[in-house]
């Protein structure tokens, strides 16, 4: 069964990030259809996902549309219990569902003052009292969830679950705006920034359209605090070591250089998302390391 998922700009659409993580992080097949926010593209795309009014919106293979990320999480969990979208333990699952529901409905001050922007990180943004109250609430419910679930790893309720999916854009906001949180909360943020699916989404977000000026803020910039990507660059000329794109298997047309070597891809987007973070893509990493050892 393959689903369709309508999303907005990857760099900015926090709810789209949640919707996509529910597929990518749990290994579920999906065809993504993207529209640029604040343009006519979005209503045109959503016309194919009626009656949804916002992204993300999911369409099943039978054509049933499920809007809202929380509903998407529940529907996917019902259809794919083996995926582990919610914790298996009933009490842990109850905690995870409560966390996701609170995130879905709350933290308005944080959302408003710090809209998600995965293309930049700032030294700080002078968070007002309401944002600081949201951060204090996050620290409390994250700590209580970990205690309630006796969690020893990086996630809230044992293994990575929908509860963590719902807080991924919050982690991006804390990282992006240099918000001060406790060491425990900061460790949770760092786990999100290093998560393979999050890295793939951010890499795509870096190259899937022009900047949206609405999200620009006048704060001093700093390097993104997540894992540093391997240096790579797009090049116009060269002979690729591979004949087929590592993602599609199609003939290569667009090139990148990394570690003094040339690799090819079937289109500029495949190349550019790889340039943005080469190690985020297992198919490319396997190609890179295989060639190193051959």
TrEMBL record:
Record-level GO cellular component terms: cytoplasm
Domain GST N-terminal: 3-84
Keywords attached to this entry: Transferase
Pfam families: GST_C_2, GST_N_2
Broad EC category: transferase
SUPFAM superfamilies in the record: GST C-terminal domain-like, Thioredoxin-like
Protein's name according to its UniProt entry: Glutathione S-transferase family protein
PANTHER family tied to this protein: GLUTATHIONE S-TRANSFERASE OMEGA, PTHR43968
Species in which this protein is naturally found: Cereibacter sphaeroides (strain ATCC 17023 / DSM 158 / JCM 6121 / CCUG 31486 / LMG 2827 / NBRC 12203 / NCIMB 8253 / ATH 2.4.1.)
